[in-house]
Design a protein that fits this description.
Largest sheet of chain A: 2 strands, antiparallel
CATH class of the largest domain in chain B: Alpha Beta
Number of strands of chain B: 12
Number of domains of chain B: 2
Radius of gyration of chain B: 24 Å
CATH superfamily of chain A: MetI-like
Strand content of chain A: under 5%
CATH architecture of the largest domain in chain B: 3-Layer(aba) Sandwich
Shape of chain B: globular
CATH architecture of chain A: Orthogonal Bundle
Strand order of the largest sheet of chain A: 1-2
Helix content of chain A: over 70%
Radius of gyration of chain A: 24 Å
Largest interface: A-B, 43 and 49 residues
Oligomer: heterodimer
Strand order of the largest sheet of chain B: 2-1-3-12-6
Number of strands of chain A: 2
Largest sheet of chain B: 5 strands, mixed
Distance between the termini of chain B: 63 Å
Distance between the termini of chain A: 44 Å
Order of helices and strands of chain B: HEHEHEHHEEEEHHEHHEHEHEEHHHHHH
Number of helices of chain B: 17
CATH class of chain A: Mainly Alpha
Helix content of chain B: 40-55%
Chain lengths: 292, 433
């Protein structure tokens, strides 16, 4: 009898402690999500909104700028995510080597980009690739370029600079995940493999990658999600240009809301399009990656 | 005891989170007494220009109205626009200041989207004393919303020393066509190795000022997008491309790089709104080396003149202001009624008036040493009077963006007709609902 009241009391405290956080999550997260969805069903400018059903969603498919921004983001995704994750995996394997001297320093250095603000890293990369920036100066000094190259005004090179910036900023972040994953792999597995005569690359592909699969899946989903919502880098490095060659979906949402005549309903529909894309891609990745 | 504490703490958390969600109550006190202290908040950008002018205006107004305090908050234009839209769309206009500075090319959009947010100034400020083209910019459906401030009249700002080194005279650049400008640019490039002019790569600044010089814009009388068959626009893109391809014009990635080309002598000239003179004069070592002439015109478009406008702005009074009458009176007695104000801000910041009585002040006819003794302010005010009037329209930013993209496609070798057809389609899409 006494025990039940105690359990009840503990439960009560539990609820009391959970409620504030739950309330915040509800108010700051779920409520905006629902109201953004309702907003996406309305058309109009500013506050003169009227209900229009799924019209905004139908509009998406005729919107050349939206489709271009989706194309841009998919380009970033397809090139950047695999390159970055492979790089992170390689770095993590190197850093996991117990014989490596100064591991602590290298780990810190590789994680450090994550501690910089997105805007400042974007500004720094922008200055690297400006007409009189360090990249042009170096390449001209080496004789690779005859005259300064205008990286950021070229549709393909501008994309390259953005991909480079994201990779620099996020590789260390993913490396940390892989390091944590690697530390859970039993050393004896590698020992056994070595005794059986497996080469280092064989160990990497036949032990490290399969055993890290859950972590790789997690990082893939996170990176995909992050790249689909790309904003800061594009806004600061090229502002979507030249033309709309580097425009990301999030920046298009920003333009629709704050640059152009505000079309909040349509902008909300675009943001739900990102949600659907993230959901679909994550679903595919889970289906492909998780074969348990 | 411990348990009671736990409960109390947890309850406290719940209550505080609810209080946060609830929001703060509004405290507003109406001032009935005319001498009661009033604080007007102003949002504007550029400390050396607009903010400086606003603070000077505050000093002048304070002489007769010591109870009125002006609180200027530096707010860059992009932030200002974003804050305006966010606050107005959330029905939270109380976050907004009493007076804002508005870009000329955004005023239509903002007033049409939120007409209730701004105070119409009809009959409250004498706008007949301002340059007509600036008043028209801020007039929507017969209501005047803007008090014109900085002048966007364009000029060709030239490096006297560089063009003379190329064997040319400053006057060779006055009253010329764009074709002639390119020819002269080639001569300068060939003789001195210095590019004639620079522009920000992703911005259609040249096509925009070319359009206005021909009295045309990207919208027709009915407000429909006029891009695809706009012959002026086609010509503007063609000339801009030719300037870049011939090496006369160099492209820079952003605004800072653009200003750097002026200050470090990478280019021999720039064509922009007269407010650029502030940035030019910031480089003291180039004193005496600059000159101003008017803007090139089209050779083969009727009605094209050597005058245009780029990037002016005006003051607006917000409807949420608790003291709209004080705000209007303040603007009327300073920016719309004080020669002394313009006499102070002109030499210090180069802020050229659109309030015509100020242009009669002797300050405007002072020779400016930085420009080799040229009376540049007199010349620029003179240009301002001849700028063709255009309606920027509600969808100006959409169209401007589309032209930026078209320009970039043309630069990459695309056809002008195809690029403009795409631009027309994109703008029409954004205009539809």
């Amino acid at each position: 009898m006494a025990k039940t009241t105690l359990t009840k009391k503990i439960n009560l405290y539990g609820w009391l402690f959970v409620i504030p956080a739950a309330l915040f999550i509800f108010i700051l997260n779920f409520y905006p999500m629902v109201s953004a969805f309702l907003l996406s069903l309305q058309t109009g400018r500013g506050n003169n909104l009227k209900f229009a059903g799924l019209k905004n969603y139908a509009r998406l498919f005729q919107d050349e700028m939206f489709l271009t921004s989706v194309g841009n983001v998919i380009t970033y995704l397809v090139i950047q995510v695999p390159v970055m994750l492979l790089l992170a995996l390689v770095l993590a394997s190197i850093l996991n080597n117990p014989k490596l001297k100064g591991r602590g320093i290298f780990r810190t250095l590789i994680f450090l980009p994550c501690a910089t603000s997105l805007v400042s890293s974007a500004m720094i990369f922008k200055s690297f690739f400006s007409i009189d920036g360090i990249v042009n100066t170096t390449l001209m000094g080496l004789g690779v370029l005859q005259s300064p190259m205008s990286w950021l005004t070229h549709p393909i090179w501008a994309k390259f600079v953005i991909i480079l910036t994201i990779t620099w900023r996020w590789t260390g972040y993913n490396t940390v995940f892989y390091l944590a994953g690697l530390q859970n792999i039993d050393r004896s597995v590698y020992e056994a493999a070595r005794i059986d005569g497996a080469s280092a690359s064989r160990q990497f592909f036949s032990i490290t990658i399969p055993l890290l699969k859950p972590v790789i899946l997690l990082t893939t989903i996170m990176s995909t999600n992050g790249t689909l919502q790309l904003f800061d880098e594009v806004r600061n490095i090229t502002n979507g240009g030249p033309g709309i060659a580097t425009l990301s979906i999030s920046q298009y949402i920003y333009n629709l809301s704050f640059m152009y005549n505000p079309q909040f309903g349509y902008a909300a529909a675009v943001s739900y399009a990102i949600l659907v894309m993230v959901a679909v891609l994550s679903f595919i990745q889970i289906k492909v990656g998780d074969k348990r | 005891m411990k348990k009671t504490m736990c409960v109390v703490l947890a309850l406290l958390l719940v209550v505080s989170s609810l209080a946060f969600a609830g929001g703060k109550a509004e405290t507003a006190a109406a001032a009935a007494d005319p001498n009661a202290p009033v604080t007007l908040t102003v949002w504007c950008w550029d400390p050396t220009f607009n903010i400086f002018a606003m603070n000077e205006a505050a000093k002048i107004y304070a002489v007769d109205h010591p109870n009125v305090k002006i609180n200027v908050v530096e707010t860059p234009w992009n932030d200002l626009q974003q804050k305006l839209i966010t606050s107005l769309s959330a029905n939270a206009a109380s976050n907004l200041p009493d007076i804002i500075l508005m870009q000329d090319n955004a005023i239509q959009k903002n007033v049409m989207t939120y007409p209730e947010a701004y105070v119409a100034l009809n009959g409250k400020i004498d706008l007949t004393q301002f340059a007509q083209f600036k008043v028209d910019v801020g007039t929507i459906e017969g209501k005047h919303y803007g008090v014109p401030f900085d002048n966007g009249a364009t000029g060709t700002f030239l490096r006297r020393d560089i063009v003379e080194k190329a064997g040319l005279k400053v006057s060779d650049f006055n009253d010329i066509t764009w074709e002639r400008f390119i020819e002269l640019g080639k001569i300068v490039k060939q003789k001195t190795g210095i590019a004639m002019i620079s522009t920000v790569a992703n911005e259609p600044d040249f096509p925009m000022l070319m359009l206005q010089s021909a009295g045309t814009w990207m919208f027709d009388e009915a407000g429909k997008a006029y891009i695809k068959d706009n012959t002026v626009l086609k010509e503007a893109l063609r000339i801009t491309k030719e300037m870049v391809q011939s090496g006369v014009c160099i492209l820079v990635p952003d605004w800072n790089a653009y200003i750097a080309t002026l200050n470090n002598g990478t280019v021999a000239s720039t064509i922009n709104g007269c407010w650029i003179s502030g940035s030019i004069q910031a480089e003291k070592s180039q004193s005496g080396k600059w000159a101003v002439v008017n803007t090139p015109r089209f050779a083969n478009i009727a009605g094209s003149v050597n005058y245009s406008s780029q990037g002016g702005s005006g003051w607006m009074v917000m409807a949420n202001s608790k003291h709209p009458d004080v705000a209007i009176d303040f603007l009327a007695k300073t920016f719309g009624g004080s020669v002394a104000l313009y006499e102070t801000i002109l030499p210090a910041s180069g802020a050229i008036a659109t309030w015509l009585p100020a242009a009669k002040s002797p300050v405007y006819s002072t020779p400016i040493e930085f420009f080799g003794g040229q009376k540049i302010y007199e010349d620029l005010v003179n240009y301002a009077g001849k700028v063709p009037n255009v309606k920027y329209g509600v969808f100006n930013y959409e169209a401007r963006d589309a032209i930026a993209r078209a320009l970039s496609e043309v630069m990459q070798g695309g056809s002008i007709d195809a690029a403009l057809a795409t631009a027309q389609k994109n703008v029409e899409f954004l205009m539809s609902e």
